[in-house]
Each structure stands twice: as structure tokens, then as C-alpha cells.
Write a sequence for this structure.
């Protein structure tokens, strides 16, 4: 019975992202006032010393982070996502930039990554880990497909703790984002789900515990923009 419930929840999330795919990029950049570009650049900067030749970008969405990772001069980048509509837009963006010889996409679940052990030198997740149905299983899968000394970098929203930014952010998250998201994306649930998923996410040290449980070492957290987002790092 539990598996049936989980499959239904997974399908609901997939359908939700399929529904908002066409407005996803615009709303992401608008809601963050364009700062999400800088946050992704931080991930790329963290990966730079590793010089990874192979990267897997999980919950890739429309491929924004995968496209920025081209700056690392890898031989291949694979983006996976459960939403076919998101991937379709990602493929169009990659083709327009003539990057399809390096970046490819696969519709797949983070809990069942369709690659062998020790395949990639780096793994990234941007704003998708809080949507993992089974967090520990997905992190274990990422650990499995990484090579020894491979790096995991997770970019995710978190709740700021500094007054008065904390109070303003809560209001913005709970009131403004759902309203604008509903008007532009025409999806009532999607941007009401966003603040709920951010609050439910085990951020900070709690998430680092999950990363360590999957087998990663040298774990650390980089807080960004007063704690609105964080980059979490782990090494295999």
C-alpha cells in the first residue's frame, strides 16, 4: 500500500512540473530577482578545482545549471529529471546554444539513476533535492554513480535566520510567490507547494547528516544571500 501511495505522490510531482514547465525559467529568475544565476555560478566555482570531465545534474529541470557547467570544460554532462516537459525545454535550450554534443538529457528518477557505479566525477542538484520522494535513497544513488573522490554539490533553498530578513522572506514566500505563480503559471498548486517544500526540507546540519549517511565525507555548507539558499558539499 505504501508503494502505491509513494507512486501517486511521485506522479503528482511529475505532473505539477510538467504543467509549469513553460513558465518555470521566467518565474525562477523573477522570484529570485535574478540572483539564482549567481547561486549557480557559486556551484560552478566550487566544482572548478576538481576539473570534472563527467557531470550528472539531477533534477535538472530545464538545464540551467547544466548549461552553466559548460564553463568547467567537461567531456559530458547528463541531466536527469522526472518531468518530460522540463527536459524538452532543456533540450531546446541546449540545441540553440549548440551544446548538444556535450549536454544530454534523460527522463529518470533520482532514486533509480540509470547508470553504473563510478560513472561520474561530479554530481549536482539545484533546487530539486527537497522534491526527492526518498531523500536517503536518492543520495545513496548519487553516491553510487560517483567515482572515488567525486564531488556532490547541492544548491537548495533554506530559511534565513537574520532579523528582519527572516520575517520579510516568510511573507514573500507565503504570500507573494503563490499569488504571482498562480497568475502566470495558471497552476494553483505548484507555487503553493514551493513554500511548503522549503519549510519541510531538513536544511543545515540536518541535511548534512543525510549526506553523511549516504557515505559522503568532507561535508560542508555555504550559506548564500542571508541564508535564502545554501550549497551543500560532500566527497565520495
Amino acid at each position: 500500500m505504501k508503494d502505491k501511495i509513494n507512486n501517486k505522490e511521485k506522479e503528482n510531482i511529475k505532473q505539477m512540473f510538467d504543467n509549469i514547465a513553460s513558465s518555470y525559467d521566467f518565474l525562477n529568475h523573477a522570484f529570485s530577482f535574478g540572483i539564482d544565476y549567481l547561486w549557480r555560478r557559486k556551484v560552478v566555482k566550487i566544482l572548478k578545482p576538481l576539473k570534472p570531465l563527467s557531470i550528472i545534474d539531477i533534477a535538472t529541470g530545464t538545464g540551467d545549471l547544466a548549461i552553466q557547467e559548460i564553463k568547467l570544460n567537461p567531456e559530458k554532462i547528463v541531466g536527469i529529471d522526472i518531468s518530460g516537459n522540463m527536459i524538452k525545454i532543456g533540450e531546446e535550450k541546449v540545441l540553440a546554444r549548440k551544446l548538444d554534443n556535450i549536454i544530454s538529457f534523460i527522463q529518470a528518477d533520482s532514486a533509480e539513476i540509470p547508470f553504473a557505479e563510478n560513472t561520474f566525477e561530479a554530481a549536482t542538484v539545484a533546487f530539486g533535492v527537497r522534491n526527492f520522494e526518498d531523500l536517503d535513497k536518492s543520495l545513496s544513488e548519487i553516491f553510487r554513480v560517483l567515482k572515488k573522490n567525486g564531488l556532490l554539490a547541492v544548491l537548495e533553498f533554506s530559511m534565513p535566520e537574520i532579523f528582519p530578513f527572516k520575517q520579510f522572506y516568510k511573507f514573500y514566500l507565503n504570500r507573494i510567490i503563490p499569488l504571482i505563480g498562480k497568475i502566470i503559471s495558471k497552476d494553483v498548486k505548484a507555487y503553493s507547494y514551493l513554500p511548503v517544500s522549503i519549510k519541510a526540507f531538513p536544511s543545515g546540519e540536518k541535511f548534512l547528516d543525510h549526506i553523511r549517511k549516504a557515505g559522503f565525507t568532507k561535508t560542508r555548507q555555504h550559506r548564500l544571500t542571508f541564508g535564502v539558499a545554501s550549497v551543500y558539499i560532500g566527497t565520495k
Observations:
- Residues 2-31 form the longest helix (30 residues).
